[in-house]
Every structure is written in structure tokens, then in C-alpha cells.
């Protein structure tokens, strides 16, 4: 696919399918994924949904899952974003029943490429996940109006990443927001529901686009009604 083209993929339901875009000299630009359901993608096939070396990607209304009955390495990631991806948005989606949910930036030694990373997560449901909900290395992330339920881990900002975390709701989660290896977050309006918020702070907030926050008290109902592979006509 040549840069500048727009492709929309809709109403696709799959079992054990990996969708991946490897690094090429012509970076993939402007792609929309909508209404996908991907489940039980084995580790040998890679991530359920992997985005690499791509710009202006919108993942909307997808359902990604496996199970936690197998070892944590039986499956790979649900939705990983790596190799300097810029302007990636994940919205209205349901990530659930998995060990390693969503990794942004794949290696501590890939700083020169991954400083460009910018990923937004909005209006998603994260349920029964062990870790990476999500986990950021380098770059910048905007995480707002998500609903986190019954997860072991929380949002992890690490290795120089800077996150803007706004108006999210956490229930029955062990961790809410934390940092390792000098990651940072600017957090406001979140309902951590008793989960910990121990991230080192930053004042970064320059996401580069306009947006409207849903009130924290309305997030749970909105996300439960809209997240996942749903279409209305």
C-alpha cells in the first residue's frame, strides 16, 4: 500500500489471525480498522493486532481477547504499537481475558526510533488483564475516558515516556498508574477506585488535537454500552 491511501476494514470476525505491518521504506499511512473481533492468536503468529512503523492509524470498535488458562507466553500481545508509530488512536474497543494486553515501544534500546511514538487510547474497556494496560516506552501517550475492570496491573509509563491520563475509571484493579525506569504521567480527573497512583509526574499535555472529555462519572456506562465490535444501522 502506498502512503496516502486510506483503507477501511469493517465487519471482520476472525479466529487466530494476526494483522501486522512490518517496517518498510514507505511507511504505511492513514489506515482505519473498525469492527474486528480477533481472539486466541497463538504466540507463534505474533500479536493479535500489531502495528509497526506506521502513521495515522485508527483502530475503532475492535474486540481482542484470548484466555488466561494457558501460560503467559502461550499468546503474545493483544495490541502492540512499535517502531516509531505516530498518531495512532485506539477507541471504543474491548481488550479482555489476556496476559499481556498492549505494549507501546518494544525495546529499551530503541530510543532513537521510538521517541516519535504517539498513541491515544479513548473510550476502551480493559477487563481481566494481567499487565500492559497499556505499557509505554519512550514517546507520548494520551489515555482518557477508559474503563479498567479487574486487572492485575495498570497503566505503566517507563523509560522516558510521558503520558496524559484523564478521566479514567478503575474498579477492582491492583494498580492504577505507575512508573518504572523514569517514566512520567500528567494525571487528572481519574477515579482509581482504591488502586494505586504512584507515577512520577510531568506537565506534558500537548497532544496536538482537540478533544472533549466525558465526565468521569459517566465513563463506565458509556464504555459498557459502546466498547467492542459493535455496529448500529
UniProtKB/TrEMBL annotation:
Q: Does the keyword Phosphoprotein apply?
A: no
Q: Which domain of life is it from?
A: Eukaryota
Question: What InterPro entries does this protein map onto?
Answer: Pec_lyase, Pectin_lyas_fold, Pectin_lyase_fold/virulence, PEL
Keyword Signal annotated: yes
Instruction: Spell out the coiled coil positions from the record.
Output: none
Return the GO cellular component terms, semicolon-separated. Answer: extracellular region
Where is this chain's protein located in or outside the cell? Secreted
Per the database record, which ranges form the Pectate lyase domain? 2-176
Molecular functions per Gene Ontology: pectate lyase activity
Q: Name one GO biological process term.
A: polysaccharide catabolic process
Which UniProt key words apply to this protein? Carbohydrate metabolism, Lyase, Polysaccharide degradation, Secreted, Signal
Where does the record locate the signal sequence feature?
1-22
Gene3D superfamilies linked: Single-stranded right-handed beta-helix, Pectin lyase-like
Q: Which family does it belong to?
A: Belongs to the polysaccharide lyase 1 family.
Q: What is this protein called?
A: Pectate lyase domain-containing protein
Instruction: Give the species this sequence originates from.
Output: Rhizoctonia solani
Amino acid at each position: 500500500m502506498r502512503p496516502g491511501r486510506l483503507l477501511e476494514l469493517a465487519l471482520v470476525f476472525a479466529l487466530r489471525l494476526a494483522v501486522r505491518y512490518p517496517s518498510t521504506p514507505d511507511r504505511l499511512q492513514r489506515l482505519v480498522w473498525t469492527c474486528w473481533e480477533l481472539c486466541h492468536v497463538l504466540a507463534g503468529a505474533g500479536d493479535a493486532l500489531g502495528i509497526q512503523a506506521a502513521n495515522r492509524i485508527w483502530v475503532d470498535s475492535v474486540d481482542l481477547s484470548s484466555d488466561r488458562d494457558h501460560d503467559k507466553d502461550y499468546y503474545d500481545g493483544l495490541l502492540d504499537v512499535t517502531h516509531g508509530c505516530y498518531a495512532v488512536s485506539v477507541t471504543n474497543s474491548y481488550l479482555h481475558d489476556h496476559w499481556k494486553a498492549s505494549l507501546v515501544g518494544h525495546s529499551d534500546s530503541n530510543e532513537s526510533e521510538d521517541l516519535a511514538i504517539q498513541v491515544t487510547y479513548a473510550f476502551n474497556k480493559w477487563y481481566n488483564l494481567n499487565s500492559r494496560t497499556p505499557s509505554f516506552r519512550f514517546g507520548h501517550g494520551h489515555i482518557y475516558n477508559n474503563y479498567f475492570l479487574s486487572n492485575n496491573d495498570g497503566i505503566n509509563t517507563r523509560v522516558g515516556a510521558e503520558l496524559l491520563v484523564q478521566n479514567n475509571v478503575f474498579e477492582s484493579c491492583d494498580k492504577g498508574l505507575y512508573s518504572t525506569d523514569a517514566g512520567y504521567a500528567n494525571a487528572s480527573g481519574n477515579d482509581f477506585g482504591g488502586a494505586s497512583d504512584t507515577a512520577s509526574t510531568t506537565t506534558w499535555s500537548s497532544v496536538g488535537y482537540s478533544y472533549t472529555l466525558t465526565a468521569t462519572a459517566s465513563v463506565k456506562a458509556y464504555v459498557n454500552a459502546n466498547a467492542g465490535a459493535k455496529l448500529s444501522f
